[in-house]
Design a protein that fits this description.
The complex is a heterodimer of chains A (465) and B (48).
Chain A (H helix, E strand, L loop, with lengths): L2 H42 L2 H34 L2 H35 L1 H35 L4 E3 L5 E3 L2 H5 L4 H30 L4 H35 L1 H8 L5 E2 L3 E8 L4 E8 L3 H4 L7 E2 L13 H30 L7 H10 L2 H15 L4 E3 L3 E2 L9 H32 L32
Helix pairs in contact in A: 1-2, 1-4, 1-6, 1-12, 1-13, 2-3, 2-7, 2-13, 3-4, 4-6, 6-7, 6-11, 6-12, 7-8, 7-10, 8-10, 10-11, 10-12
Chain B lengths: L17 H30 L1
Classes of the chains: A mainly alpha (465), B mainly alpha (48).
Chain lengths: 465, 48
């Protein structure tokens, strides 16, 4: 296996996982949003919650489907491109992924059918139960995937057998490895943030066209309330996650902060151009004396720099450094947007604040960008290891050639470009159309529209909500 | 055209009896699980 084949295999996995993570990071939050909407509809019987549910459930179904398709590809890649990793780690990783399928995926897939096709058949309460089960399923799914990934970040509870394969000696230590709780919290909050930003952007877009649209007025308030609460919480969860990185993956922390030298009282680098070869950051803007403070340790504590580790073990510092800053920068912008939105809601001006509505539209995709940037920090920062300290990436790949990996990478790029562009554009079209046409009840005055058709219950006059 | 995604029953619409609703609940869930399993085994059969 030469370097190019390894790089191609990594590129292929990066490409497919970057596509995949978009969907679960959206559907985890959206499933909970749907459960809240349906619960509110059951409790209040206000039409606005039902209409919002019917609008977002379509988008949920499409996103869920695309998430499944893009996820299946990755499990095959573990066999085709990463067979050495699979051979060595399957006894530990395999059961975690199998639990994900058995306890989460089947739960979601089973009750999604009730959610989509059974509201009249099962009645409101059982339908709500199905929605809640699907929402729980998305969290269980995140639990197992984060558990497997966290174990790869800091493996515990295993032993290596004579043939080089790994075996779990303590399943609780495997499942609840030290970085797992903070990473699960960080990812779950990221999913909520991503969803609330998309819901906020879709609602703001509708309000820019029609400031009286009742569903969008309600959804915007719910979204702003959500990201105003979750964004600051995410800052705390991110800091907690950073502390576990400092404790268990000091090399990754050194790359994130571009600590080239091991020392006490590290400065805090704000921006710059890290140069791995020269082991320095060019054009750096830094604040002296606060690096240790931000890491939650005293000034006298020595924080390891990259010089503490063999150079061949260094990750791509620039990519990790900038991905982290993009993630944090977007997170701070989300906090600011939340504060702005809450202030406007309090002043009863949120529907008429054009600047805020445009800003909310612009911030719509930032949850996805932050999630992908965060995963780049986590995964590139772990390099050159697939299982930190146990199995190097170079030793994980399958004995396949450049031609084979290039061909499959090209095929993925073409198929993904077609399938996901079509799916993504369709979702954007639905979002652009807005929630009102999603009404599905026939009008009481029998205007002659087909029952269940998109305009079946579109009202002629603005409604009271 | 009938709606693919079923809307909730209207306020005046009579609900089927509980046994029937539970039957639909379990039936749709089982059918969905089966559909997922069929796709999974079909994919596996294509690869093995």
């Amino acid at each position: 296996m030469d370097f190019d084949a390894i790089l191609l295999a990594r590129l292929q996995f990066a490409f497919t996982i970057a596509f995949h993570i978009i969907f679960p990071s959206f559907t985890i939050g959206l499933a909970s949003f749907l459960a809240v909407l349906e619960g509110l509809w059951l409790g209040t019987r206000r039409e606005v919650f039902r209409n919002l549910y019917l609008f977002w459930v379509k988008i949920f179904a499409l996103s869920f489907g695309m998430g499944v398709v893009s996820g299946v590809v990755m499990s095959y890649e573990l066999g085709t491109n990463w067979s050495e990793f699979s051979k060595m780690a399957a006894p530990v990783i395999g059961p975690l992924l199998a639990f994900e399928v058995l306890t989460a995926f089947f739960l979601e897939a089973s009750f999604l059918g009730v959610m989509l096709f059974g509201w009249k058949k099962v009645g409101p309460k059982l339908h709500f139960t199905a929605t809640v089960l699907v929402a729980i399923g998305t969290f269980i799914s995140a639990f197992w995937i984060l558990s497997a990934n966290s174990w790869m970040q800091h493996p515990t509870g295993y032993e290596m057998l004579a043939d080089g394969t790994l075996r779990a000696t303590d399943w609780m230590a495997v499942i609840f490895s030290p970085t797992f709780p903070s990473r699960l919290a960080h990812m779950s909050l990221a999913a909520f943030l991503t969803t609330s930003l998309v819901v906020g952007a879709a609602s703001a877009w509708q309000l820019l066209k029609d400031r009286t649209q009742p569903e969008s007025r309600m959804a915007l308030r719910m979204a702003v309330g959500m990201f105003a609460i979750v964004a600051p919480l995410q800052l705390v969860a991110g800091h907690y996650s950073g502390e576990t990185v400092r404790e268990h993956q000091p090399l990754k922390l050194a790359a994130i902060e571009a600590y080239w030298k091991t020392r006490a009282d590290q400065p805090q680098s704000l921006v710059g151009i890290p140069d791995r070869d020269a082991a320095k950051t060019h054009y750096e803007i830094e604040i002296p004396g606060i690096g240790n403070l931000i890491q939650g340790v005293s000034k006298d504590t020595v924080l390891q720099g990259l010089d503490s580790f063999p150079r061949e073990d260094w990750p791509v510092v620039g990519l990790v450094y900038w991905s982290f800053r993009i993630m944090v920068g977007l997170g701070l912008a989300m906090i600011a947007l939340g504060a702005w939105g809450v202030w406007l809601i309090w002043r009863r001006r949120v529907d008429d604040a054009g600047g805020f509505l445009w800003a909310t539209v612009a911030m719509g995709p930032t949850g996805f960008i932050a999630v992908i940037a965060g995963w780049i920090v986590a995964e590139v920062g772990r390099q050159p290891w697939t299982i930190y300290g146990v199995l190097r990436t170079a030793d994980s790949v399958s004995p396949v050639g450049v031609g084979q990996i290039s061909a499959s990478l090209l095929a993925f790029m073409i198929i993904y470009a077609i399938v996901f562009s079509a799916g993504g554009l369709y979702i954007l079209r639905l979002i652009a159309r807005g929630p009102a046409p999603a009404l599905a009840e026939p009008p009481p005055d029998g205007e002659g529209r087909a029952p269940g058709s998109p305009l079946a219950a579109a009202p002629a006059e603005p409604r009271e909500v | 055209m009938p709606a693919i995604i079923e809307p909730p029953p209207g306020p005046d619409e009579a609900q089927p009896p509980l046994w029937k609703r539970l039957g639909w609940f379990l039936g749709i869930a089982l059918a969905s699980t089966l559909a997922t399993a069929v796709v999974a085994y079909a994919l596996k059969a294509l690869l093995v």
